[in-house]
Write a structure and sequence with these properties.
By secondary structure, the protein is an all-alpha fold. It is built from eleven helices and no strands. The chain has one domain. The longest helix has 60 residues. It starts with a helix and ends in a 6-residue tail after the last helix.
């Protein structure tokens, strides 16, 4: 560590080399921007794509404005509003067909033929409704895929920014924590969200076809245990990432201060120049870290909030469909629609829980002090 101090430029003839440290955004930030969905990236300020930290800070300031955030989220949600309305119209049409089929069944004199007709019509309508349910699940699946890409791009970005400030231990611990988080997001959540939703929808369909099957409690247990497991794992990751990054930053600061003290005592003149240079570097790196960290949190929120709004819209659509089913006298379809609406709520909770670790990692970056300061 002490030898590194003497490798830093301390010449008074080149002040621009000092002022330029921390002014340039790492190239890894461009990869992070590329991981953002195309429909969100089109609404971002042009300043966010600049390689200059000052211009990037201006873009972050625009992005943090409440009216800008609200307008961007509403625009992204508006693109999906038509799909929700079409789904509501489809559900209403299917329920009307179900009501007509039920009336035809009651008009049949043969009880066995009426049961067969009722089973076939109910099964066909339920399959059509289930296809709409999987459309809702696809929203969460796509978000977890995007979250994995953003996390993968953020690992080298955060490691570079930590290392620029001398926080080598914090860079290693932060990268390790995000790697574990990426593995859990891709392997556990990404590969189990579809089977989880399929099991819940299968239970709902079975209970809707045969009212004697009481699977509602079992389905509720599966949903609660799945979200509880996600919350437990993400809580462990939050604790691990926060503790390791904070302790690593303190260890780096202590090591760097010891190196600066030794340099000042061994060579007073050069040691004083090095200390002054390190303060300048620390200020630039801290400014860059804060800018990138805050912009990263805002970009993640811009990606997360439209997904949450879309899931809640779909939940509202399924709830309205359940109300229509109750009005036209379709109890089996009402059970299925209620279960799909409940599933949307659990998917929104899973999306929010899994995003918390990434938000903490970016927040720690913005607030972590440089070890060389």
């Amino acid at each position: 560590m002490l030898l590194l101090l003497f490798l830093l430029p301390v010449s008074a003839e080149d002040p621009e080399s000092e002022s330029s440290i921390g002014d340039r955004v790492p190239s890894e930030y461009g990869d992070f921007l590329d991981a953002i969905p195309e429909d969100i990236r089109g609404y971002l300020p042009e300043e966010l794509f600049s390689s200059d930290s000052g211009t990037l800070a201006d873009g972050t300031g625009k992005l943090s404005d409440f009216s800008y955030l609200l307008e961007t989220v509403l625009r992204a949600v508006g693109l999906r509003l038509g799909d929700c309305l079409r789904l509501l119209a489809q559900i209403t049409g299917l329920l009307l067909l179900s009501a007509v089929a039920s009336a035809l069944r009651d008009s049949m004199r043969s009880e066995s033929v009426g049961r067969a007709f009722s089973f076939c019509s109910t099964l066909a309508i339920l399959m059509a409704l289930l296809s709409g349910g999987y459309t809702t699940v696809r929203v969460a699946v796509d978000y977890f895929s995007t979250l994995g890409k953003m996390t993968s791009a953020a690992i080298p970005l955060l490691a570079t920014l930590y290392a620029m400030g001398g926080n080598v231990t914090a860079a290693a611990s932060g990268a390790a924590g995000l790697t574990v988080y990426l593995t859990l997001t891709e392997e556990l959540v990404g590969k189990t969200i579809v089977p989880f939703a399929g099991i819940c929808l299968a239970f709902a369909a079975m209970e809707a076809v045969d009212s004697n099957m009481r699977l509602g409690t079992l389905a509720a247990t599966v949903k609660k245990q799945y979200t509880t497991l996600l919350a437990f794992l993400m809580t462990l990751l939050l604790a691990m990432l926060g503790a390791q990054t904070t302790l690593g930053a303190r260890a780096d600061t202590l090591a760097m201060r010891g190196a600066k003290f030794a340099a000042g005592n061994l060579i007073p003149v050069v040691g004083g120049s090095v200390s002054e240079l390190l303060r300048t570097v620390s200020a630039g790196v801290g400014y860059l870290r804060g800018t990138v960290g805050i912009s990263g949190v805002l970009l993640l929120l811009l990606t997360l909030l439209p997904v949450l709004a879309e899931l809640l819209l779909y939940r509202l659509v399924w709830q309205l469909g359940a109300s229509v089913a109750d009005l036209v006298g379709c109890p089996s379809e009402k059970k299925l629609l209620d279960e799909i609406a409940s599933l949307c709520g659990y998917l929104a909770a899973a999306v929010s829980i899994c995003s918390s670790v990434f938000i903490l990692a970016l927040t720690l970056l913005a607030h972590c002090a440089s070890a060389i300061g």
